[in-house]
Amino acid sequence: xxxxxxxxxxxxxxxxxxxxxxxxxxxxxxxxxxxxxxxxxxxxxxxxxxxxxxxxxxxxxxxxxxxxxxxxxxxxxxxxxxxxxxxxxxxxxxxxxxxxxxxxxxxxxxxxxxxxxxxxxxxxxxxxxxxxxxxxxxxxxxxxxxxxxxxxxxxxxxxxxxxxxxxxxxxxxxxxxxxxxxxxxxxxxxxxxxxxxxxxxxxxxxxxxxxxxxxxxxxxxxxxxxxxxxxxxxxxxxxxxxxxxxxxxxxxxxxxxxxxxxxxxxxxxxxxxxxxxxxxxxxxxxxxxxxxxxxxxxxxxxxxxxxxxxxxxxxxxxxxxxxxxxxxxxxxxxxxxxxxxxxxxxxxxxxxxx
Length: 354
Known about the structure:
CATH topology: Chorismate synthase, AroC fold
Largest sheet: 5 strands, antiparallel
CATH superfamily: Chorismate synthase AroC
């Protein structure tokens, strides 16, 4: 099936379903000689794994990665890096009631129409569980991207918004709260909101902000492979994402050009950064920052009207273990996808000039 690979040189292909034996991936293009810290990779997976707190799904998965190839004595060999993450806590019976029913706003109907058959257990291939493979590859990409930091955090949940610009925040405090918001007071309000929505059997969405520091000038390719275009595609490929904006984003449409331009300073830096660190699709050496909008999770613990495979009206009952808000677990996924894009453009930049 097409659409299972991402990247040009640093290229990830993923496989597996939510309730299959395992999920996994094959990462190609990683240069030889990179010393791999497997504990750091496992730490990234732990940030994403289910069952972390009362505001995430209660599915319990160890999410223990097993490397099959491409790494020998802790060092990459320049060959494909193969890995799997076994599924150990699948409860397929939770989905038996929808084997011939379509849940609203899920991929159930579209997968069935496209392929003529679907794995109804947890959404199969369309499940967000697939993103664990991306986190593994993204963690390797982070280790390749020396002196570059990628930090994402939850900046809004529903109508609750952290209005402070990222420059005024201590992003090292992001992991201090279960919602992954670096401002303690706002984090407490977000947690209370998510928990109240959960108790109603409902879900809620929000925004994740990502800040990337240390990217040198010159990463990005014209015309269709602009750095921000690849970041947008990467983010939009994540389950439940409905929007992407970088730099000034939509707020920039309300400004005049005289206000929005980023004048150069004598040291080569700019006086402002409305461009979000990217100009002409190429990094300009400033911080890259962007926002990713996530919809409320489609699975709710309430009865909903829908249809079955015969097109008959039915009522779908909410069952199983699901996130009331995907944002806390999506933070490491956003970082991973950003790292994959940057690793790919880092390697492509080596081909730009002699």
